[in-house]
């Protein structure tokens, strides 16, 4: 199935922030629309297409209507669940509960036809497991807005805009991951690039990335610098700060960012941020022209059906 980004008029069908107990399972099943299942804290497992993925903090499952799957909470897990349609005439939500279908476990072993997005002349294949940087603040806002849908005029249209924001972030990230790297490094550095794309907020060391490629750290650093014009260590720091900027503008707290990105303390995070940008995180967020970060949102009201995390 292929979607053209330029012609999308999405609809948000369901959104919640919830906690699953250890051992809670969804499926094997199919869904009638699309779902982004984002792990905020804890560990979950996705099984589909004859494979299994472990989803940790900051990682998501991206599921479509033709994807038999099973989600499983390996431990107590906080998560966001967002169901959406790529295209809908009306922005009004169509709750997915009535279209959920139980399927035989044997279908989890069948090969899947991946979803794809057409971006200009390029077709981008959408992965089942993805780690979109700095998306938690947006998911929180979507869940909050959905929970108050009946209370505010125009919420369905705002949810359409927020869902389009989510889709654009998804497509941009996939495009960044899939765009060709320099020819000289295409194959030799690919394992390291895939590791960075899969866990962009992890505090990767040069030695860890070099090991992924089977090289000594010194040789890996020379290959990396020749391919990208920058050594791995400053590149990794630049990417962490870029992700931190997105998270700050998305309203995520400095405590959460520091913890998620592996800094030993908020002080360490702030010091590194200022050394790189010339501003403290607070000063960066308050610059003129920057969006004011959303205030802490209350967790949305959920019906018993919503608390099931569909």
Automatic annotation (TrEMBL):
Domain HTH araC/xylS-type: from-to ranges: 190-287
Location of the region described as Disordered in the Swiss-Prot/TrEMBL record: 276-310
Coiled-coil regions, chain positions: none
Any Pfam family: AraC_binding
Origin superkingdom: Bacteria
MF terms in GO: DNA-binding transcription factor activity; sequence-specific DNA binding
UniProt keyword terms in alphabetical order: Activator, Cytoplasm, DNA-binding, Transcription, Transcription regulation
PANTHER family: HTH-TYPE TRANSCRIPTIONAL ACTIVATOR RHAS, HTH-TYPE TRANSCRIPTIONAL ACTIVATOR RHAS-RELATED
Protein name in UniProt: AraC family transcriptional regulator
Species of provenance: Paenibacillus sabuli
Lineage: Bacteria, Bacillati, Bacillota, Bacilli, Bacillales
